[in-house]
Amino acid sequence: MPDSVNEAERGEAYHRDAEAKIETFKYAKPEANPRPKQLTFLARTKLLSVAVQTVKDGGENNLHYHSNGDQCYFVLKGRVRFHGPENHVYGEFGPHEGIVIPAGSRYWFEKVGDEDLEVLQSFGRDKSMPDMARINLEPHKQWMEGDAGLTQYEEKK
What we know:
By secondary structure, the chain is mainly beta. It is built from 1 helix and 10 strands.
């Protein structure tokens, strides 16, 4: 067989393999949970995770960064304020507003106001990095206890 036929077959197999992995999803706010912050994953691939974070009073996080990928936060309901080092405010966002946090950017965020926060989070992962690379720069919050992925610290140099 000519190489062009084999190449066309490989191309078609590539597309069919990818298309077989297409996912659909639907979100519904989770039932009451004792934790002040909950993550509901909607979809995951090798490169992308999509989730909704539901944050109640006390669900703020600590100063940290992700070394293995970029993140995008998009507010569905409520308000959120993103902070950086030394109390720098990156911005406050309401419904249909958001922020992109490149890998290595130090940040933390908090719910603002009385309404529960619901924020769509997408995380684009660098395949060459470890699966979990969330690095704390400040002590983790009490609600984070018991979740090994939230209690990893940067090694002092």
